[in-house]
Specification:
Elements (H helix, E strand, L loop, with lengths): L4 H26 L4 E2 L14 H34 L15 H30 L6 E8 L2 E6 L4 E5 L21 E4 L2 E9 L4 E5 L4 E5 L5 E7 L4 E7 L11 E7 L1 H14 L2 H5 L2 E5 L4 E5 L1
Parallel strand pairs: 1-10, 2-6, 5-11
Antiparallel strand pairs: 2-3, 3-4, 6-9, 7-8, 7-10, 10-11, 12-13
Helix pairs in contact: 2-3
Bound molecules: copper (II) ion.
The site of copper (II) ion has 7 residues, from loops.
């Protein structure tokens, strides 16, 4: 018997490749995440952060079970009916057109399912709308095509623009990173006051379960809890708002309390209301870059 050494070698190489890739995948899941962001081939929601996002994810998972059971049941029924009542020679089809019991069942059961879904849905809705005491307030204004963040208690405000692809540095992400992120201290409950400057935008940060329309002339409110841990939470405007709709991402940067204080000190100089009065920024449509006009 002759053994082809090359074949054995290739076989083992393939097996080792699979083991290596598997270990790499498991390892990447075990890595502490420093950012909440969309991942390539992601099938599920982003990892939830804070109580609202956690409860929203739980509700989503529960509904996924409910809709899967309903879909499987309906599909099974369809297959059963197709096979059992298919056309056969010498079989006369039934002329039945009503069945009171079945009609009551197919009305009552969906109502009961809706009631079961409604209870956790309303609980979550009331939680998101609850007037909870908060640690800080941030005013968010959507504009074509950037965001403006204002900290009323600190008297600072600044614009936040996308970082152009050619200007990306370090681990900055294409289409997601911005020049001035919305910096907040970790472990903080924040109220967002969301408004708009022009057309309708939407302030959407999936991992924090934030999704609120930004509408000119009106202020919408939402609160969230930014958990402990230095982390970036990525989001995007998800209301189609014009030609550069895809180029106004959102970054919420959570920092440890001391690092936040250091940032705040610098921000109070850089982004003070008065200093910003003479500076106006415009977004260049074609280059997606920011230009400062004095
Ligand atoms: Cu927008």
């Amino acid at each position: 018997m002759t053994i082809n050494f090359q074949t054995v070698h290739n076989g083992w190489k393939k097996k080792l490749d699979v083991i290596f890739c598997g270990c790499l995948t498991i390892f990447s899941f075990l890595q502490p995440a420093s950012a909440s962001e969309p991942k390539p081939w992601q099938m599920d929601l982003q990892e939830p952060a804070g109580i609202i996002a956690t409860k929203a994810t739980e509700l989503h998972n529960f509904l996924l079970i409910v809709i899967t059971l309903i879909s499987v049941f309906v599909l099974g029924l369809l297959v059963y009916v197709c096979i059992k009542f298919r056309e056969k020679p010498d079989v006369k089809p039934s002329k039945t057109s009503h069945n009171t019991l079945i009609e009551i069942v197919w009305t009552v059961v969906p109502v009961l399912i809706l009631v079961v879904i409604a209870v956790p849905s309303f609980k979550l809705l009331y939680l998101t709308e609850a007037d909870k005491p908060v640690d800080m307030v941030v005013k968010v204004s959507g504009a074509q095509w950037y965001w403006n963040y204002e900290y009323p208690d600190e008297e600072i405000s600044f614009d936040s623009y996308i970082v152009a692809e050619e200007d990306l540095k370090g681990d900055q992400k294409r289409m997601l990173d911005v020049d001035n992120p919305l910096v907040v201290p970790e472990g903080t409950r924040i109220k967002f006051l969301i408004t708009g400057n022009d057309v309708m935008h939407s302030f959407f940060v999936p991992s924090l379960a934030l999704q609120v329309y930004s509408i000119a002339g009106r202020i919408n409110e939402i609160w969230t809890e930014v958990p402990l841990g230095k982390k970036k939470y990525y989001g995007q405007c998800n209301q189609i708002c014009g030609v550069n709709h895809a180029y106004m991402p959102i970054v919420i940067q959570a920092l440890p309390k001391d690092e936040y204080e250091t940032w705040l000190k610098e921000a109070k100089v850089k982004f003070a209301y008065i200093a910003n009065k003479n500076t106006k920024k415009i977004a260049l449509l074609d280059q997606k870059k920011v230009k400062e006009i004095k």
